[in-house]
Amino acid sequence: MPLKVVIIGGGSSYTPEIIEGFILRHHSFPVDEVVLVDIEDGKEKLEVVGQLAQRMIDKSNVKITLRWTLDRKEALRGADFVSTQIRVGGLEARALDERIPLKHGFIGQETNGAGGMFKAFRTIPVLLELADEMTELCPNAWLINFTNPAGIVTEALLKHSKHQKVIGVCNIPFNMRNSVAEILHAPVEHVSIEFIGLNHFIFGRQVLVNGVDRTADVLAALRQGNDYSPANIVGLGWSESFLNSIKMLPNPYHQYYFQTRDVLAKDLQAYEENGTRAEVVQEVERRLFEQYRDVSLDVKPKELEQRGGAYYSDAACNLMDSLYNDRGDIQTVNTLNQGTIRDLPEDAVIEVNAVITKAGPRPLSIGSLPLHLRGLITNLKTFEQLTIQAAISGKYEDAYLAALMNPLIQDEKRIDALLEELFRAHHLYLPQFQLKEVLS
Amino acid sequence: MPLKVVIIGGGSSYTPEIIEGFILRHHSFPVDEVVLVDIEDGKEKLEVVGQLAQRMIDKSNVKITLRWTLDRKEALRGADFVSTQIRVGGLEARALDERIPLKHGFIGQETNGAGGMFKAFRTIPVLLELADEMTELCPNAWLINFTNPAGIVTEALLKHSKHQKVIGVCNIPFNMRNSVAEILHAPVEHVSIEFIGLNHFIFGRQVLVNGVDRTADVLAALRQGNDYSPANIVGLGWSESFLNSIKMLPNPYHQYYFQTRDVLAKDLQAYEENGTRAEVVQEVERRLFEQYRDVSLDVKPKELEQRGGAYYSDAACNLMDSLYNDRGDIQTVNTLNQGTIRDLPEDAVIEVNAVITKAGPRPLSIGSLPLHLRGLITNLKTFEQLTIQAAISGKYEDAYLAALMNPLIQDEKRIDALLEELFRAHHLYLPQFQLKEVLS
Amino acid sequence: MPLKVVIIGGGSSYTPEIIEGFILRHHSFPVDEVVLVDIEDGKEKLEVVGQLAQRMIDKSNVKITLRWTLDRKEALRGADFVSTQIRVGGLEARALDERIPLKHGFIGQETNGAGGMFKAFRTIPVLLELADEMTELCPNAWLINFTNPAGIVTEALLKHSKHQKVIGVCNIPFNMRNSVAEILHAPVEHVSIEFIGLNHFIFGRQVLVNGVDRTADVLAALRQGNDYSPANIVGLGWSESFLNSIKMLPNPYHQYYFQTRDVLAKDLQAYEENGTRAEVVQEVERRLFEQYRDVSLDVKPKELEQRGGAYYSDAACNLMDSLYNDRGDIQTVNTLNQGTIRDLPEDAVIEVNAVITKAGPRPLSIGSLPLHLRGLITNLKTFEQLTIQAAISGKYEDAYLAALMNPLIQDEKRIDALLEELFRAHHLYLPQFQLKEVLS
Amino acid sequence: MPLKVVIIGGGSSYTPEIIEGFILRHHSFPVDEVVLVDIEDGKEKLEVVGQLAQRMIDKSNVKITLRWTLDRKEALRGADFVSTQIRVGGLEARALDERIPLKHGFIGQETNGAGGMFKAFRTIPVLLELADEMTELCPNAWLINFTNPAGIVTEALLKHSKHQKVIGVCNIPFNMRNSVAEILHAPVEHVSIEFIGLNHFIFGRQVLVNGVDRTADVLAALRQGNDYSPANIVGLGWSESFLNSIKMLPNPYHQYYFQTRDVLAKDLQAYEENGTRAEVVQEVERRLFEQYRDVSLDVKPKELEQRGGAYYSDAACNLMDSLYNDRGDIQTVNTLNQGTIRDLPEDAVIEVNAVITKAGPRPLSIGSLPLHLRGLITNLKTFEQLTIQAAISGKYEDAYLAALMNPLIQDEKRIDALLEELFRAHHLYLPQFQLKEVLS
């Protein structure tokens, strides 16, 4: 049987990355057919990206059949892997998620706080529809979800769709492992980090190089200013006391929770100078697509790395390769907790090291959370579950509760105004919410 | 055997309340002997309060022997009940707990945030010493702890002393029940409220009047502006959306967590106008003691109610009465979780409805926390446990962690400066901390 | 509104007990109307019992309207309390439950082992139907379930019917408390026993008399041969080592689990001498009904106490009284675990001390089971849940699993023959099971 | 640094197996030094086995230095791995463990029931002493424990010694995997079985061959009489209903729990015909040592396989190899539960699939036990923990409780006599028990 991969949101500027990944790994993960799928609004971009991808494949001499289409159902039939990299509402919606909270005095970020909550509200119904189609058309295919907020979206899929072959992936752990390898001058394949927590809220509890504990060395490097923030986050560094107390590796997104005031100030200033990150990215995208249209381009252009998604393609391809080949290596994925973290519900999704087998990821047991992380991780998970509840119920009250229990919002008196503006801005993508009263 | 009660911090301005309580309940709780205990610094106040208490007893005609002393050990011998109402460092220390955080941009409050944390640091060692003395001198006596932060202090005692007959009491649930009775025009003894949570972080999940659910009526009254804040907290009201979503009765202290920005602004303004709450209270105290000195005064003066501790005496006396008489009624106390709330550790202290028997409180089972409270309550409990850990270990790192995990602080970059100033201010009362490096 | 009680299985020989209870408690629990309901097969008994009950009421001078009917739906309309004391298949079915297991080398008992399992299979569908009718016809009525196995049946109702106002009652804890009061020469109302466990598998962890621990005294009495077995169980006494080790009060049904070999021998001998307990009871019943028919009888006859259900009526009437009057006293009932026992699922039914309010029972928190009980209680609960699963699914495999996990059966090679004979014997009452293959 | 392995109980007849293992794996696990240790009583056997091992090494041409000694402390210094294969009291003690219970009507087996309990009582103090010596003399060495009951002993070590580098190993999962590979005609390295449970009480929940689920095929083979019992257990086969219901692979030791009556009959008959298994093994041993003494023997003799410990050496060597090389493969070991199985305590030892790294085993998360296993596994674990408690406390009451809660004993009236005889028989090896009263 031919090995078929379908990429939902195939017109994304990231697509050349994953195409490159398929080409480089063709010896071990021999993709026969790739189908890029997008929606009517993305038709023109899909065409541009599709033609670039075809030129890349042609140049490479590997045998991959490529197609692009707007007919998702047709594309899904018989797929082995379906990868999602969609953005419901596009970068325009992201700009609103970033700008509106700032205006109300809250951090505006596309995966945390109010912005992440509304991205989840827009995304969950679309991906549930996709999952239903997969149950019908390719029931044995793995859905590899990259769409943010990846942890929340993956949990929503596992809770509310019949399709249970779903894994969420994020490049942050991948990125941290690579950065730590650089810091320690060790080959990345010798480095393992025990991650505990949730997507965008993981800590690295222990760094092992060939089984030897090097955590203290990495913390020492961080104390001296080493950093591993991706392109889309400007790190503010961590104080000595913070690192001495927490004794684990923070991830770049922790700045939103532990440096809230400074990040808000920084973001407001950046916004005044350059607009939102979405607007910066729109300009990057414009330039990327200019290059993509150049018919002499037949490789992934360097500039793509500025996009913030470095290693996304590696993360995706490694995962598909291990699933396909029953490889049994350890990767960091978003999957069901079961009992891995004792403090969280069994049906919660966590970001965790797991052995990747053909039958799916098998998480490594963690046990009880260390006391000093228990509160915040439980708190974040509560927010995530309230967000899913609201995304499904479409009730204003549920959205209010999710906002109230998000540590970046939590301001009883300002939530109504914040939500009202966000619901108004995004209402076209939120048909599940019945907001007549609230917005009238 | 004579029934003996010892009041630690007997020179407090609150003492006339509890003396009044003993007088009024003498038919069912026939106290034979009351000993007021205080420290050298409180000698003069103890004398004033002791003489007023004696005049009150004389007037009442009940047979209670009263003494006051600075010799705690002598006083404890043979006690049946020991009640604590101490304030380590006095109102001066409280003023620092309120003022210093404000200066750093944080809420300054004596039971929450950085102020509550330092109050716990100062209080825990003193009460552990008391508990050890009780184990030796009156092993069967109940320690009724009123000293704030009452939940944290009670948990520290149950975890780190041999004396296990300890119950923490707060007037907030007592107060809420009375206010709700007023709102519903029902006799308070017909009203029961199911409380869930932690001291100063409880919610009223269900209001029953003679077993009939009246929660919605109370919420409706709150929506219309009804309030039940004690004298020391200025309520800001609750939005309709908040009450519609949470569907439970908040307690007055919730404003610190859900209205943080507004409370901070309000407190800053109040501070500029009147100084800290401690300073306001110092003035109230000054006037109270002026009255207490008046040898013609032989009842509890009205002005005492402005002090914020309304119902404290009722709460204390009712509890002692039920313990003494094996009454089996339901009261709200701070006691071991055991399995009452499934999401919290068994050895955590919670504030909970319990059947009060001679053998101690028997909490009514709660089960899992409702999803929307799970995160915050777990978070607060984590903070509490980190605070206890720091109070015992005396390590700066542990204090930093507690601050980091407190939702009112959590600001990685500003904690060092905040802690440094607080440690400097309170160092005389914190011998367990070895802070040379930090404060040098 | 008149207070109406409906008794399902009203033609039972026990009915005079509960009628006596209503008469004696009429001042505090003023029943206006009692309806006895039975099925066509029980028509004649219903008539006899109804007339005796009428004579008892007439004699008492209390104002209770009594009716008896075969029309259950008509009877239920407007009920406040519905009490069940049915026996699906009658004493004939019980005799089979007792005889068939014995034949296969297993204990035959109507609430434990294979007998109890089949009693549950027969009873659960009938009571689920009743609960559905109640949801429609008297949604606010409490269902007080006495039908054995009371714990299993109550859990099945709470899990599989919409009607959630269900409480299971057993006379064993009532009985134990009375016996302990006698042993200690204390008024029963001063005695409280902390019960932990499951119906027919509870232990008394602590005996308090007016709040003073008297557990050791009761254990000493048991060591000297004191016993508190009901009429239907012949106690074999407990060894000193057993009582010294377990340090709690066993209940009479523990003999099945801890004295299995001796009980089996005893039961086999008794069976050879007198037939099954069901057959003994049939004879008692025959004599009772002879008396009931005597139109000069207008009180509960003494002989009824030989039936084994002593205190059933007290247990039932006390419970209804407290629910009706929001009394807030503590009774031992079968109700949802929620979090009361940490080791058991939240939706399991346990037998537990609870505060009885108009809004239902509020269990007293227990926490983790003592280590030495954890295994057996979890094991029994597993059996109970597998039994419910089988009673609902009607699958042979599920029934096999339940038998396999019952400590009194567990014999992989003999279960098929045992089940086959039981299914054959009871098939008329087990329409939910599709057993063609098994029984062909 | 030279790689040093110490074998405690080096005079065992199994030693040639592990020596062969070291020889065959020398390319990847390059042992430099092996020290065989035994006690005075085993001096002569140690000499015989040592000389055979030396001849095997000489023949193989690998560079391993071999020594044998009675001085355990001297041997331990600088060790990297310490493997235990001791039998406190020798086969004579085993014979008593097997014979005495049979006499009282209980199964006599060296790892289950009363026999296993007393083996634990004898073994735990000896291995705790070893662990203490290791903490002093080779703190970084792994203790690989083969001594049965392996799960109980490993848990006792992890709970009561400072030395935390302890892993328990059993050949049963190894054996099952090999047998399943044969049944499926698949190379064993392509087969993985998800094991859940406890040592000698594991089930195989899922069989994967290259990631494809083949569980049903293995169950079908078992239904047709395929078996995978080791030499020391005579399998009785499993009924179709059992396999259809349980839907998992039983292990050979399950016969003791699910076929108790038949196994007891079988064992009684075997005992009458051939004496206990210990006596059979004594004869095998005698013949083995006759061969070992033959100076022309320089390989492991075939007959060793009749001993019942097939694959023990493979299990041991594979584990040491993976620990040494940080291999990251999955092996089935006895290690701390942490949160792997949600229903069991975090500090319990379970038998579980784990990724083997230089930093130790990392168990794969399991979550909640399937309902139908929950009861029995919790029950067994309770017994195990009570056994450890008794082995440490030395209290008769604790031993009684452990026996009472063992599903193979549980007979309140017969435990005293059973224990008395076992304590009398083994008292020389049970100095921790103070049994004057019991045995007088």
Automatic annotation (TrEMBL), chains A, B, C, D:
<dbReference type="InterPro" id="IPR001088">
    <property type="entry name" value="Glyco_hydro_4"/>
</dbReference>
<dbReference type="Pfam" id="PF02056">
    <property type="entry name" value="Glyco_hydro_4"/>
</dbReference>
<dbReference type="InterPro" id="IPR022616">
    <property type="entry name" value="Glyco_hydro_4_C"/>
</dbReference>
<comment type="similarity">
    <text>Belongs to the glycosyl hydrolase 4 family.</text>
</comment>
<dbReference type="GO" id="GO:0008706">
    <property type="term" value="F:6-phospho-beta-glucosidase activity"/>
</dbReference>
<dbReference type="Pfam" id="PF11975">
    <property type="entry name" value="Glyco_hydro_4C"/>
</dbReference>
<keyword id="KW-0326">Glycosidase</keyword>
<keyword id="KW-0479">Metal-binding</keyword>
<feature type="domain" description="Glycosyl hydrolase family 4 C-terminal">
    <location>
        <begin position="195"/>
        <end position="409"/>
    </location>
</feature>
<dbReference type="InterPro" id="IPR019802">
    <property type="entry name" value="GlycHydrolase_4_CS"/>
</dbReference>
<protein>
    <submittedName>
        <fullName>6-phospho-beta-glucosidase</fullName>
        <ecNumber>3.2.1.86</ecNumber>
    </submittedName>
</protein>
<keyword id="KW-0464">Manganese</keyword>
<keyword id="KW-0378">Hydrolase</keyword>
<dbReference type="InterPro" id="IPR036291">
    <property type="entry name" value="NAD(P)-bd_dom_sf"/>
</dbReference>
<keyword id="KW-0520">NAD</keyword>
<dbReference type="InterPro" id="IPR015955">
    <property type="entry name" value="Lactate_DH/Glyco_Ohase_4_C"/>
</dbReference>
